[in-house]
């Protein structure tokens, strides 16, 4: 690749910004063009439902980089630009306004987009989705006069929002369609732990129910459920998950649960790469898709190395995400769609435990950690090693995890 080549990055979220930064760190001297449809200087989304919402972090604290960062590194930041077409033959992209931009190599880093619901009365003021800074600003302003709020969906974002709103003194009710939220990710016991955690902190959780109607004049005043419950509220947060943002298409661009990439971040079209939440990438026995901050950063950094020096750096990342709720820190490592057994280490009653998800060969596929940060490093290493382990050693608190991990080496 020539030092004078133009690299264009579509999406100025976590992956896009870290990709642009890493291209300069890796020595790319050519043009870097970072394009995003949002008009805001690139910002970090996770704090919007946590520290920023509670006032612990101000507006500048959620910026991914100071505005001067882009000029200092000669990164051409183009905001408010919506891309409608990719031409891999001419190596151009076309914006909604009809402008064409040329590139030598292209990275798609469009992230994810919200799932939405259609519920009677959802036009009323006070009903929100949280994805962009503009959403967060509207929510924060509205919440100043709210006493009761409803959150639809008990996933990690909904749970974090419940924690933040309780911290602001608002009465919160969560409505969750399933009996055990996130059971497919963390298992029944950890799911029950989360339900009890919400309830211990004064949040009402309604499971196996769904909101079917909102009532009010111009502003929402009540949410009605399929089970006949009527919940007074002046604000509603819909948090029903996200999907990969694959709005940019081309007949030759392979997509399934994300833009399909190989271990180097290459798509099915030469010189077009993809990174972050919008991708489906190879992991152990097959392709996976995850929507995690840590993955977006590390994937972007690895893929940029391959854009400069093709197929030089395979991506061997262990998925990781964290969640802060009610003063606790939860961490999840690995990726397990199914498991043969779960091993507990520590105490749920003390809110300090680690759960290991093992396959039928006693190999750790994933682990969930509650308030045991010291376990993070050995857990990550054990998952990466992919070797059989003695379940009794995992459960035995008298044996350090570092010692257990070293025994696998």
From TrEMBL:
- Where's the FAD/NAD(P)-binding domain? 6-300
State whether keyword Endoplasmic reticulum applies. no
**TM regions (residue ranges):** none
* Cofactor(s) recorded in Swiss-Prot or TrEMBL: FAD
Query: Which is an annotated Pfam family here?
Result: Reductase_C
Name all Reductase C-terminal domain ranges.
320-404
- Keywords, comma-separated and alphabetical: FAD, Flavoprotein, Oxidoreductase
Q: Which PANTHER family match?
A: APOPTOSIS-INDUCING FACTOR 1, RIESKE DOMAIN-CONTAINING PROTEIN-RELATED
Query: Under what name is this protein listed?
Result: NAD(P)/FAD-dependent oxidoreductase
Q: What is the lineage of its organism?
A: Bacteria, Bacillati, Bacillota, Bacilli, Bacillales
């Amino acid at each position: 690749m020539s030092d004078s080549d133009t690299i264009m990055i579509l999406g100025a979220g976590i992956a896009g910004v870290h990709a642009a930064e890493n291209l300069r760190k890796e020595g790319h001297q050519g043009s870097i063009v970072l394009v995003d449809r949002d008009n805001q200087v690139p910002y970090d989304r996770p704090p919007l439902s946590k520290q920023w919402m509670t006032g612990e972090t101000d507006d500048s604290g959620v910026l991914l980089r100071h505005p001067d960062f882009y000029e200092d590194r000669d990164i051409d930041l183009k905001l408010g630009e919506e891309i409608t077409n990719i031409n891999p033959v001419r190596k151009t992209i076309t914006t909604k306004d009809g402008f064409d931009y040329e590139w030598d190599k292209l990275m798609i880093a469009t992230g994810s987009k919200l799932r939405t619901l259609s519920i009677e009365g959802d036009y009323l003021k006070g009903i929100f989705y949280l994805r962009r800074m503009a959403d967060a600003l509207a929510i924060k302003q509205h919440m100043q006069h709210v006493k009761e709020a409803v959150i639809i969906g008990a996933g990690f974002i909904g749970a974090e929002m419940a924690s933040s709103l309780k911290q602001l003194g608002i009465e919160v009710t969560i409505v969750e369609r399933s009996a055990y939220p996130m059971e497919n990710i963390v298992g029944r016991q950890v799911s029950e732990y989360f339900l009890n955690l919400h309830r211990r902190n004064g949040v009402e959780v309604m499971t196996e129910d769904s909101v079917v109607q909102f009532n009010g004049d111009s502003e929402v005043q009540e949410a009605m459920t399929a089970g006949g419950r009527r919940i007074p509220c002046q604000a509603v947060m819909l948090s029903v998950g996200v999907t990969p943002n694959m709005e940019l298409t081309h007949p030759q661009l392979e997509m399934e649960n994300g833009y399909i990439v190989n271990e180097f971040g290459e798509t099915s079209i030469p010189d077009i790469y993809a990174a972050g939440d919008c991708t489906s990438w190879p992991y152990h026995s097959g392709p996976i898709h995850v929507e995690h901050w840590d993955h977006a950063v590390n994937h972007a950094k690895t893929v940029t190395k391959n854009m400069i020096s093709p197929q030089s750096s395979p991506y061997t990342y262990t998925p990781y995400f964290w969640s802060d709720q009610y003063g606790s820190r939860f961490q999840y490592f690995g990726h397990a769609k199914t498991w043969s057994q779960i091993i507990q280490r520590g105490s749920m009653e003390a809110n300090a435990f680690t759960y290991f998800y093992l396959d039928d060969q006693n190999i750790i596929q994933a682990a969930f950690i509650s308030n045991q940060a010291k376990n993070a490093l050995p857990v990550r290493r054990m998952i990466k090693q992919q070797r059989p382990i003695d379940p009794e050693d995992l459960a035995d608190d008298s044996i350090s995890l570092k010692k257990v991990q070293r025994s696998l080496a």
